[in-house]
Amino acid sequence: MNKLSSLSYGLLLSASVALIGCGGGGGSSGSKPTTPPASSAAASSVVASSIVASSVVASSVVVTSSIAPSSSAAASSSAPANMQLTIQGVAAAEALAGGEVVFTIGSKTYKAPIDNALKYNMLLDVPAQDSSAPFVAVATGSAGNSWVQLARLYPSVKSLVEKAGSDKVLNAEEYSGLTITPLSTAEYAEIKSKQFPFATDEERTSALFSLHPIRALEQAAMVERLLTDVDIHLPAQTKTTLDYLLNANLAETHLEALRVTNESTLNDSVAQIQADPLQANVPAEKIIGNYFLEALNANYYLTLNADGTGTLTAATLHAKVEGNSAAEVVTNFTWVRTGNAVSLTLNELTRADIKDIYTPSNTWATCDDYNTLSEIEACDVRFNEIQLDLITKTENHYLANLKILVTFTRKNNGAIVYEGALDPQLARVLNVENLVAINRDALIGAELVGVRYSYVFNSNGTVKQKDLHTQIETTRDWTLEKNRVVIGDSQFWVSHKTHVGFGVYSVDDKRVSASSLWRRTSVNMAESDWIGRWSTFPKEAFGAGSLYDVNEDKSWRDGFEGQLAGSWSIINGHRQTALANGSWRMIRDMVSIQGDKYYLSICQGEDATPFVPSACYLDIEQKSTNFDTAVFWKNWSHPAFNEKATDEPLVSIWGYLLNYDKYKFEWTNKAYYPVAANKLFSRSAQTILEMTSAGRNEIELCEYQLNDTCNEANKHTYVRGIEVKLNVGAGGEVTYSKEFKQLDWNAYLTFNPSIDKVFMVPKSMSQIIKITPDTGYVLDSVTGCEGHLNGYEYYIPGLTATCEISVSFTKI
C-alpha cells in the first residue's frame, strides 16, 4: 500500500494525482502518514547537534536568524559587506510539505517554510567570513511528519552566488543541486560517518568523489521504502530518517538484511527513485568522452566516440563468470543512446571453458551434459551487449543500472545453455572531464604509495617506480595533462584529494581499478607502538575485514582466531613483519598516521627467502590498546568459545556458527549472514546477532529482532576456548572435522578444514582430528594432549589448558 493514500493534505494529494496523470511538475517521491511510526513518537524537527557540529561550524553557539524572503539584514558599516543570495529550492518528499528547511552557515541558522508544491524560498544574508565554507541544509516535515528529515551538503554561498549570476537568484532549474533528496541525504550521511573533511569547496568535492560508488543510492532506496510503504517503520534506535542514515552501522545492517531477504524489493525502491521527476535528473547532454564505469563485480574504462564507436578496457567483464583468472579485456564496440538507455554492442568477445553460471533467477545453469559420463563439459560464453539504464545524475557522475547480455553455448554439442542477462548491478558512470585538475607540484617530491607500485616524481620528467612485489626500481618518463598521469603504458587519473594523498582511477596493463596513492610521511614507531588490536576503518560488513592482535609477547593473532596465531617483529621504524601458521607472511608498512587513523601498505604471501608477496593492498586501520574492537570473524577463522555462565560451547567454522545440542548430542547451526562488521542476520528468525563488545579473551553476543534493540537480558558472554598447538611433519595433512545439522535446511553438513600450527576447541569437550598421509607416505606417530589414535582419527579428551600434538610421517 502506498502511503500517499493516508496523506491529509488535500491540496497536495490533488497535486500528486495530477502529476501521476499527466507527468507535470511539482510531484515527489511518495509520502508518509501524518501519524509517525511507533519508534518516532518523540521525533523533533530540531536539527540534532551531531548534524551541525561539522567542520563548517565556526562556533558552538547556534544563533537562529529567521529571514523572510522579502527581508534583508542590515550590515555594519565597519564590517565587510555580507554576501546575499536568494535560493529557490525543492524538497523531494511529499511528507515535507508544510515543514521547513534550515540552513546552518557558520554560527547562524536560516529558515524557510516548504510549501505544498514542495518548494522553499530562502534569502541568505551571510557574513563574509562564513561565505566560503560549504554548509548543511536540513528539511523537516511538520507535526506528524516531523520524523521525515532530509539533508544536503551544499557548496559555499560564494560558489552558489557565482552559479546564480548577476540577479543573485538561484533556482533548482539552474542548479539541480538545490533539490534536497534521499540521495543527497545518504551522500551527506556517508561523508559524516567516514569522516571526510568538507571545510572548503575543494574538500567537499573530494568528499563526494570519495563516496562508495553505489552505497548512497542503495541507502536512498531504503529511505524511499520508509516514505512509501505504510508497513515499514524507522528502527527503534532512531527518531528521523536523517538520524537513521547518520547511524551508519544501523543503516548498513538494514540494507544488507533486505538484500538477503528480498533484493528485488531494494531494486523496486531504486526504480521508484528513477520514476520520480524530482529525484531522477538525467539531462539530455552528450555523453561523448572517456568514462570510468564502477560496478560491484568489475571496473571498466570506456571511450565513447561521437561516431558511435568506442573502446572498452577491463580486467574482467563479470567476476561471477570469469572469476579471478579472467583474461584482460580490450575490445571495440558500437553504441547508441535512446533517452536514458545506453547500449554498447561488443565486437566478437568470447571466453572458453566456463563451467556454469549463476543466473538472475537465482539458479545455476550448468554446462555439463550429464548424458556423457566420461567428461565434464564446459561452455563458451559470448559477451553480446552492455546495457546502461541511467537513473540520475549527481554533481559529478551518473548512477545507472548495468546489465550484461551473454550467450552460454555447450562446447561438445553447440546447445545453448543460457541466453540473456547476467545478474544486474548498480553502477557509477564517471566522465574523466569532471575530475579535478592538479598541478605538477602536487606530485613532485614525496613518495606516493599505491597498490602495486610506489612512485617518486621528479621535476625533470622522470619518476622512480618501485614494484612492491619484487622491490625492483625502474626510472621512467612521466607526463601530466590536467589530471591524467601517463607512465609508459600505464596511466591514472587523479580524482580527488584524501587525508594523505589522492584517489585515483588507473588503467595499468589493461587492468582497470579505483584506488589511492598515499603520500609517505615521517613515521617512527617503537615496538610498543605496534601492540594492540588493529581493525579496518570504516568497519563495514564486506570490507577487508582486517582484525589483528599484536601482543607484547611477540605473538600475532588474526583477531580472536587461533588458526592464524604466529609471531611478529619490526623491520624498522615503520615496517612490521608477521608470520602466521608457519607459512603465510605479512609485511605492514606504515605510510602515514593522521589522528587516530593509520594508513598502511600491506603485502602478503607464502613465506620464502627472498620473500616475494603475491598481493599488496592499502588499508586504513585504527588501534585499540585495550583489545576491545568488536568485529565478527571471517570465513577463514575458526575460533571456539564457552558461554561464561553455563560452559555451553560455541564454534565458528568456515563462517558457520555452531552450537551444541546437549540433548541430541549434535552440533547445530542456523544460517547467519554478515550485515555489518559486528552483526549477523538470521533470515529464518528475522533476528540480529550482534557482537556488542569484545576483549582480548572474551566476547559478548546479543540476539534480538531486526527492528528492535539489544537489552541486557539477551546478552551472553563467551570466553575464548583452548588452543591446541600442532607440530606436523612433512608427508601429510591434519584436518579438524565437524559435522553439524543446518536447521534452516534440515540437512547435515561436514567440514574438514586443514590445520597447520594451531587450532581452537571449546573447553572440556572432546574433539577428533583426522590425519591423512600424502601419497607415498604412511603415518608414523601421533602423540600429545592425552589423545589416542583409532585408525586415522585422533581422539582428544576434554581440555582445560593448552597442549601440543606432534604428528610424523614416514616415506614409503
Determine the mean pLDDT. 86
Structural class call reads mainly beta
Give the helix tally.
10
**Distance N to C terminus:** 73 Å
Count of extended strands:
57
Strand content: 35-45%
Task: Give the C-alpha Rg.
Answer: 29 Å
Low-confidence stretches: 1-36, 38-77
Largest sheet: 11 strands, mixed
Concise account of the structure shown:
With 812 residues, this protein is mainly beta.
Any chance you could write out the topology, listing elements then pairs?
Elements: H1 10-22, H2 49-52, E1 63-64, E2 83-91, E3 100-105, E4 108-113, E5 119-126, E6 135-140, E7 149-154, H3 157-164, E8 169-171, E9 179-180, H4 182-193, H5 201-209, H6 215-228, H7 241-246, H8 248-275, E10 289-295, E11 299-304, E12 309-314, H9 319-322, E13 329-338, E14 341-346, E15 350-354, E16 356-358, E17 364-366, E18 379-393, E19 398-410, E20 416-421, E21 425-431, E22 447-449, E23 453-457, E24 462-467, E25 473-481, E26 484-487, E27 490-497, E28 501-508, E29 511-519, H10 527-530, E30 532-536, E31 547-550, E32 555-558, E33 561-572, E34 575-580, E35 584-594, E36 597-606, E37 615-624, E38 640-643, E39 649-653, E40 656-661, E41 666-669, E42 672-676, E43 679-682, E44 687-694, E45 698-705, E46 715-720, E47 722-728, E48 732-736, E49 738-742, E50 747-751, E51 754-755, E52 758-761, E53 767-773, E54 777-783, E55 788-790, E56 793-796, E57 803-811
Parallel strand pairs: 1-4, 2-8, 2-9, 41-49, 47-57
Antiparallel strand pairs: 2-5, 3-4, 3-6, 6-7, 10-11, 10-21, 11-12, 12-13, 13-14, 14-18, 15-18, 16-17, 18-19, 19-20, 19-21, 22-23, 22-29, 23-24, 24-25, 25-26, 26-27, 27-28, 28-29, 30-31, 30-37, 31-32, 32-33, 33-34, 34-35, 35-36, 36-37, 38-39, 38-46, 39-40, 40-41, 42-43, 43-44, 44-45, 45-46, 47-52, ...
